[in-house]
Write a structure and sequence with these properties.
The chain is built from 3 helices and 7 strands; from the N terminus they run H-E-E-E-E-E-E-E-H-H. The chain has 170 residues and is α+β, with helices and mostly antiparallel strands. Strand 6 and strand 7 form a beta hairpin. The structure holds ligand GNR and nickel (II) ion (NI).
Length: 170
């Protein structure tokens, strides 16, 4: 088990489309163990493989409130197949854009299909925070970030800040 480094913007890998998993094998399961370790360590409530530089369609999520009541979800090749008409607003953050939070509007509920860590087809109906996180994570697999839903001014301001930081660090 390894806690992996989380990429931050403007790393270009965060803008790439991740490839589907063709076989849920031990290599994939090892990566999933690392994703959970990295997510819990951060701490975060979701993590996409691309955030540790692996361009595969794999997500882990745990929105449990208490650390000793874990509710880990592994979603491989997730597809959102239905959205509620109702819109919800949540303050969102992203481990790839540390310490930045803004409200984002998204469908309040969604239905997602995916393969679990045994490769079994599953379907999950989500609402509340879980629905927000599922949509946020599936966006990562398509190279999309929550700042893409904000005004251009806000998005450019935060992107510039992180670009400057990355230049200073290099
Ligand atoms: O830890 C996270 N919290 C969070 C809060 C509101 C909406 C989405 C998220 S996901 C984020 C972790 C992350 O960046 N996942 O990609
Ligand atoms: Ni994120």
């Amino acid at each position: 088990m390894t806690i992996r480094e989380i990429l931050t913007i403007p790393d270009p890998r965060l803008r790439k489309v991740s490839a589907p998993v063709t076989q849920v094998d031990d290599g994939v399961r090892e990566l999933i163990v690392d994703l959970f370790a990295t997510m819990y360590d951060a701490p975060g409530i979701g993590l996409a493989a691309v955030q540790v530089g692996v361009l595969r369609r794999i997500l882990v999520i745990d929105v449990a409130k208490e650390p000793d009541e874990k509710e880990p979800h592994t979603l491989i090749n997730p597809e959102i197949v239905a959205w509620s008409d109702e819109i919800g607003v949540h303050e969102e953050g992203c481990l790839s854009i540390p310490d930045y939070f803004e409200e984002v509007e998204r469908p309040a509920g969604c239905t997602v299909t995916y393969l679990d860590r045994e490769g079994k087809r599953c379907e999950m109906e989500c609402e509340g925070l879980l629905a927000t996180v599922v949509q946020h994570e599936v966006d990562h697999l398509d190279g999309k970030l929550f700042i893409d839903y904000l005004s251009r001014l806000k998005r450019e301001r935060i992107t510039k800040k992180f670009t400057k930081q990355a230049k200073r660090a290099s």
